[in-house]
């Protein structure tokens, strides 16, 4: 039986931000969730922005978003919850090490599969102190428990992180209808009533326009909101305002108020073009291949003391990107190194580094020599973001794999391996492909466990004769 993490993060603000009585808490949320929504849609929302003050202040506003989920209990099975850091500085995005979060309504298990997949993303760190007393996380959980029933959770504290860094993590976790993204954020803080209303209306309009340039004076969760808006734009999600108010509307004290809003995002109608924000699936670049290949070859030539080729310019080289560089010598594999998820480094830096590693640091081969230069062939794979495969068996995994299209990441505990889509040319049968990948990861080819982690990605393949993939 696979090992399970039995550590739990206990409630920290029960009895302060919300009732610590299971019965009273359940009844209060149930009453809110029964209020009919003025917004209807045939599908579950993909993304929610909800406030995180005490239930007395913002509970009804948050409930207007969570009420949309009642019809989809069982269909939405995983929640990615992003929230700001109130209890100390966080560099990047922080995940916890525990196996579950507890509320008076019971335990919410963490999605170990998803957390393991993002563990190696450069901007993701592990920090239990960042989660221990964070109310902006905790107040969302009872709502989710009542609205969805059983689900797994991916909780991430967002500290000092750029919109692109947040969006990169969301890309890895995006999934399909089974995955909901929740951003926990209040609006302005401690302005007088009229100032707050004006500022909050402006902020909400910017969110509706999907402008990912909010600052913490606009919304305390500005950093996760900005990243979510960038991802929402990329995926063509349209925001809808569900409800908004401020604490002065609740208490009557208009001197120093806090603003609250709830918004939901759904995909725009099919056929609307998506705005490109990345490099891995962009079609801007007939000349990106030569730009990458020349830099990869020059990185090797420089180490060997050979003359360098002229390097064509391309604007995508300045953006983050993830590449694999594969070398062949007279038709035989000579090295392959890369990384799966883009970090802060530019695409140009990434391809140079991976070319150097493929030539001189691949542990399967001796370092490349000058005598091999004349027969050397270089190819560069530009990776899209990995997407989790939510499968419960090997048979289900085989049924959804796309031969020739999918690169695949296999993970189980500390065992990990990946095959680029090019490997399908040697292993066209899905069962053989997966068996060989398990062997590469260090496991028997017939191995399977319920906590196996699978993710797929697509690549654009560039070879020195031209681009082969799209």
- State the secondary-structure class: alpha+beta
In the CATH hierarchy, the third-tier topology of the largest domain is known as Protocatechuate 4,5-dioxygenase, Chain B
Record field, number of beta strands? 21
The CATH architecture designation of the largest domain is 3-Layer(aba) Sandwich
Give the CA-CA distance, first to last residue: 41 Å
Uncertain residue segments? 270-286, 466-470
Mean pLDDT over the full residue set: 90
Number of self-contained structural domains: 3
Q: In percent terms, what proportion of residues is strand?
A: 15-25%
Give the CA-based shape: elongated
Helical residue percent band: 25-40%
Number of helices: 14
What is the assigned CATH homologous superfamily of the largest domain? LigB-like
Radius of gyration, taken over Cα atoms and rounded to an integer in Å: 24 Å
Quick one: CATH class of the largest domain? Answer: Alpha Beta
The biggest beta sheet is recorded as: 9 strands, mixed
List the helices and strands and how they pair.
Blueprint lengths: L7 E2 L12 H12 L13 E4 L4 H12 L11 E7 L8 E3 L4 E4 L2 E4 L2 H7 L5 E3 L2 H4 L2 H4 L1 H9 L3 E7 L4 H11 L5 E6 L4 E3 L1 H16 L13 H13 L2 E10 H5 L5 E11 L20 H17 L18 E7 L2 E7 L8 H14 L15 E8 L3 E2 L5 H7 L6 E6 L2 E5 L10 H12 L11 E5 L1 E5 L2 E2 L3
Parallel strand pairs: 1-5, 2-9, 3-8, 3-9, 4-7
Antiparallel strand pairs: 2-12, 4-8, 5-6, 10-12, 11-12, 13-14, 13-15, 15-20, 16-19, 17-18, 17-19, 20-21
Helix pairs in contact: 1-6, 7-9, 11-12
């Amino acid at each position: 039986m696979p090992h399970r993490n039995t550590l739990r993060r206990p409630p920290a603000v029960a009895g302060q931000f919300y009732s610590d009585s299971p019965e009273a808490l359940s009844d209060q949320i149930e009453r809110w969730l029964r209020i009919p929504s003025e917004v209807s849609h045939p599908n579950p929302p993909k993304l929610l922005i909800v406030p995180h003050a005490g239930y007395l202040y913002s509970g009804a506003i948050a409930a207007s978003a969570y009420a949309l989920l009642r019809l989809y209990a069982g269909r939405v099975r995983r929640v990615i919850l992003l929230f700001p850091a109130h209890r100390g500085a966080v560099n990047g995005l922080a995940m916890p090490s525990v196996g579950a979060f507890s509320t008076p309504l019971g335990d919410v298990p963490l999605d170990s599969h998803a957390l393991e997949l993002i563990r190696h993303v450069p901007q993701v760190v592990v920090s239990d102190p960042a989660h221990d007393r964070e109310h902006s996380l905790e107040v969302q959980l009872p709502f989710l428990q009542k609205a969805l029933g059983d689900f797994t959770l991916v909780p991430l504290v967002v500290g000092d992180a750029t919109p692109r860094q947040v969006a990169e993590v969301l890309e890895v976790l995006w999934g399909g209808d089974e995955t909901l993204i929740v951003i926990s954020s209040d609006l302005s803080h401690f302005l007088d009533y009229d100032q707050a209303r004006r500022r909050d209306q402006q902020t909400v309009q910017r969110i509706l326009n999907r402008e990912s340039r909010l600052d913490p004076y606009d919304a305390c969760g500005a950093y996760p909101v900005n990243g979510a808006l960038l991802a929402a734009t990329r995926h063509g999600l349209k925001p809808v305002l569900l409800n908004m108010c401020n604490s002065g509307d609740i208490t009557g004290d208009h001197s120093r108020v806090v603003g609250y809003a709830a918004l939901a995002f759904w995909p725009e109608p099919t056929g609307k073009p998506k705005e490109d924000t990345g490099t891995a699936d962009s079609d801007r670049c007939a000349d990106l291949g030569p730009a990458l290949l020349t830099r990869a070859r020059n990185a090797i030539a420089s180490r060997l003391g050979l003359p360098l080729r002229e390097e064509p310019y391309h604007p995508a080289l300045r953006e983050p990107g993830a590449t694999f560089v594969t070398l062949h010598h007279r038709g035989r594999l000579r090295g392959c190194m890369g990384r799966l998820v883009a970090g802060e480094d530019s695409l140009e830096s990434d391809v140079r580094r991976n070319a150097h590693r493929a030539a001189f640091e691949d542990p399967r081969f001796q370092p490349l020599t000058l005598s091999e230069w004349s027969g050397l062939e270089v190819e560069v794979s530009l990776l899209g973001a990995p997407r989790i495969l939510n499968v419960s068996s090997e048979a289900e995994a085989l049924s959804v794999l796309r031969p020739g299209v999918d690169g695949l990441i296999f993970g189980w505990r500390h065992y990990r391996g990946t095959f680029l889509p090019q490997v399908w040319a040697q292993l066209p049968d899905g069962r053989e492909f997966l068996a060989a990948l398990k062997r590469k990861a260090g496991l028997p080819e017939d191995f399977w466990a319920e906590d196996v982690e699978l993710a797929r990605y697509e690549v654009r393949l560039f070879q020195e004769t031209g681009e082969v993939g799209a």
